[in-house]
Task: structure prediction
Amino acid sequence: MFLISHFVTPAEMVRIVLQKIILMRKFLIPHLVTALSIFLFVSCTNENDNNPTVKPYTVPTTYNFSNANFSASSNRSKMADALSSYLRTAQVGSAVTPLDATKINNMWNNTGSPFTDASLNTSGTNIKDFTNNPTLIKAYIDSISLYNTTTLATQGTAGYLPRGANKIIVSSRGVEYLQAYNKGIMSNQFFKEAVRLLSEAKAVSVTDTTKAQALWDEAFGNLSVPVNYDTTIVYTSADPNRPIWWGGYLAERGKPIQAGGIIFSAFLKGRAAIGAYDITVRNEQADIIIAKWEQLSARAALVYANMPTLSANVGNLGAQFHALSEGLGFVMALQFRPANSKLSAANYETLKNIFNKDFYALVNQAGFTDLVTAQNILKTAYSIEP
Result:
């Protein structure tokens, strides 16, 4: 409120009021500008925290990121491989080689220091806890010992079947237990975990690079390839750093669809993008990995659905059942496919039902009706050939 003398004329009063207003403007405007600047600064800072500018980055040629750590999934891969090697001894040659049930249990649970590689024994992880449907997979393992006998398998009776110079141990419907374990663990652990981890990485805030990198690294470990993986190299069994499990199938069944180069490159590009806040590229590469990995599983399943129908294998139950058992395992992987998969739910159920049928009946069908149906579903859905 202004205090004005009653001796002031009306004209002077107007002049005094205007002067007061001008003085107030000079005082208030700088403060208003300062307040507005603070508001804009805070607003812009919050916006950049949620959507930071993508930083320049390069994509390396190897998975040697400075803070990369995929030891847990890599260790489980090595454990599963060691267990497979031990189980395989039961099928070498024609004689019966007994297996130690206690050793098998210890390798499955990582108890009692069962591994030759001492670092696995103290790694703090195990095969069982990360496997989907562990009861089923463990049943395959235990059945190798249970039916490792001199009983020749026939329809309805578990036992052994000759396969070349060796033998396979099969269920009453012809499933080879070792291959059901091998491909079952690839599907029910390694592929399942990779899909889960990459999907979680896509949901992580763009600024939480540490969490996204950890998820990405763990997914990479499930691929089981060396950090300097090279599709032009022919890895030998003597190479301690050779690809195993899915890594081996990148070459064995994945060459026609360029699975090795595409998946490995996407892992490199997506990992580099995370640290640079490039969330768009990160998510694109996760989708590429999952889709190509799924297609790899589908192509492997297609190859093994086709093998029993080839003239060279017809009538050779050892060869036919070995292939069908591998196909069964690869079809298992498709249950973990993403929602946007090219394989419909109905066609997946058809595939699953076919591979869960009696193998003796499948190979004795006129024209291999069911196996041809499976082949057509896989070829059409994934645009692949055996």
Q: What stands out?
A: Residues 118 and 331 are 34 Å apart (CA to CA). The first strand starts at residue 159 and ends at 163.
